Amino acid sequence: MNRRQLLKAGVAGSVASAFGGYFVHGAEQKPLRVGLIGTGWYGKSDLFRLIQVAPVEVVSLCDVDKRLLAEAAELVADRQASKKTPRLYGDYREMLKEKDLDIVLVGTPDHWHALPMIAAVEAGADVYVQKPISVDVAEGAAMVAAARKHNRVVQVGTQRKSTPHLIDCKKNVVETGLLGKIGHVEACCYYHMRAKDNPPVQPVPDYLDYEMWTGPAPLRPYDGLPHRRWWRTFMEYGNGIVGDMCVHMLDTARWMLGLGWPKRVSSAGGILVHKNGKSNISDTQTATFEYDGLNVAWTHRTWGNPPDPKYPWALFIYGDKGTLKASTMSYDFYPAGKNEPSIHKDVVYEREQYPEDLKEKDIELNAAPATRGHMKDFLNAIATRGRPVADIEEGHISTASCILANIAMKVGRTLVWDAAKGQVAGDAEANRLLKRAYRTPWVHPADKS
């Protein structure tokens, strides 16, 4: 065997060993049966990382775009060991009726995370759902309740917790006390990722079920393929850059420092620079998440230059003995009073082990090892029936905290969060915003008995 085969065999062997309940004895292994809902960019990326680390059989794919679905089916048939083409669906409910899936991946836009995840655990599957888990706080609470009720493992795609250099950072900088007394955390995103276009209304193409794509969200006039990242620029389908990017860094800070729910949340901002175009998400926003003994402060700006070009989307932890700068690409620890880092680590790439990554369209090469690690953690939790590192409840806390920031900006005041009651203390207006109205005939999971 060459090095490539040995590495593959090692991965397969370790997974097979962990999955005693899923495999028959002897040479023949019974693969895990997998279904994917949402075959776009990150749905396929998550699925391909899972195929790389476990003996799975992708039996079902679901998407409302027939062209995207057909493309995914061809790619999956080429990637998986059996070379079989999965069954194809345009409605996730029809896919889940079969009740023959061990794992379901949910890679849809944000407004379609809650209902498929809940339906999947009701169908007996363990689930990997992308972040943020929900578009409102009530959805997230219902998702946690469903996972617990049906005793299903649900891993959230906040894969910074499985990022090799950030695991090293947590272990060798944070946990060893090099930072000293930690009194403040900052996080930021200065990517110019907010769409500024103003396309005309146009006919819906015959290969797209736009009604189903919209689902429980408000039905906007069709002005181009929404699932090709255009959806991210509308609050109807998500929670803007706070929901998209802050959730990763807040979740990372919480994981590194052992933080739970914030006690108070405040936020300010809006569309301050790019006022043309259809986008209704903020181009400038700050938010503060208050904890006992420290605050986590978030800033995003989709224009201008970042203060630190090396860390445009990042986390900064300040202690009295030093400062930590961390991102998806690297981390640096600066002892107090020093202008040069004493510890530096870069992102881990796995090009040699997984050369197919280099040929994959739109892959985030820096994130691929993290997602593979995240999938391995997910598989281990399934085997042990334990909680994964990015358990759905942790995903709910990080997601809901970001949603609370947007609510705070909307109502124009600081919110005091009562985690025990799951509501904002003494603020009826803010509490009404914890649940969005669903478009008929879809029913919000919080309204189901």
Tag the structure with descriptive keywords:
449 residues, Rossmann fold, Dihydrodipicolinate Reductase, domain 2, 10-stranded mixed beta sheet, 6-stranded parallel beta sheet, 12 helices, 16 strands
Structure, explained:
This protein has helices spanning 3-18, 41-53, 66-79, 92-97, 114-122, 137-149, 164-174, 210-214, 240-257, 368-384, 392-411, 428-432; strands at residues 32-37, 56-62, 87-89, 103-106, 126-129, 154-156, 182-189, 264-270, 284-291, 294-301, 313-319, 322-327, 330-335, 343-346, 415-418, 423-424. With 449 residues, the chain is α/β, with parallel strands linked by helices. It folds into 2 domains: 3-160, 3-Layer(aba) Sandwich (Rossmann fold); 163-350 and 392-447, Dihydrodipicolinate Reductase, domain 2 (2-Layer Sandwich), CATH 3.30.360. The protein has a 10-stranded mixed sheet. A 6-stranded parallel sheet has the order 3-2-1-4-5-6, sandwiched between helices. Helix 2 crosses helix 10. The longest helix has 20 residues, at 392-411.
Topology:
Layout (H helix, E strand, L loop, with lengths): L2 H16 L13 E6 L3 H13 L2 E7 L3 H14 L7 E3 L2 H6 L5 E4 L7 H9 L3 E4 L7 H13 L4 E3 L7 H11 L7 E8 L20 H5 L25 H18 L6 E7 L13 E8 L2 E8 L11 E7 L2 E6 L2 E6 L7 E4 L21 H17 L7 H20 L3 E4 L4 E2 L3 H5 L17
Parallel strand pairs: 1-2, 1-4, 2-3, 4-5, 5-6, 7-10
Antiparallel strand pairs: 7-11, 8-9, 8-15, 9-10, 11-12, 12-13, 13-14, 15-16
